[in-house]
Each structure stands twice: as structure tokens, then as C-alpha cells.
Amino acid sequence: MKIEILGDGCSKCATLKKKAEQAVKELGWEVEVKSIIDPERLTELHTLSLPQLVVNGQLNAAKTNMSVAEIKDYLSTFEQA
Fold this sequence. Notes:
With 81 residues, the chain is of the alpha+beta class. The chain has helices spanning 11-27, 39-44, 68-75, and strands at residues 3-6, 33-36, 52-55, 58-60. The protein has a 4-stranded mixed sheet, covered by helices on one side. Helix 1 crosses helix 3.
């Protein structure tokens, strides 16, 4: 599984990354959450606002301010690989 936080390093981006890391930990998964600031990657995913959660290349554009519980629910829809 590949988890990315798209952002420019702002406090909202850092908060989303921490929440995603906590969600992964609570799920008992050993998955790295990476911060991505690359403009080409942002353009490739048609990112309109930051921060964004991307799992296995799929942008979750539904909500940018997710709770740990919401992130866990979202991650649970993906098979861990």
C-alpha cells in the first residue's frame, strides 16, 4: 500500500500526515506515509486544494480535514499490499 499526503508543508498538511500515520498505527499496518510537495505529482493528480490524501494513486478529494477515524475507515476500503 502506498499512502501520500499532497501538500506544501503547511500546518494542515503536517496535521493530515500525523492523523494518517496514527490511523495506520491503529490499524496495525506497517505502511510509510510520505509527504509529497512535487508540483508535477500535484498536477498529475489534478489536485485542486491542499492537503490531499492519496492511497495507491487514488486521490481522496471528498474531504481534506479528516479525523483519524475517518482516515481509518477510508484506508479499510483498500486491501493492504
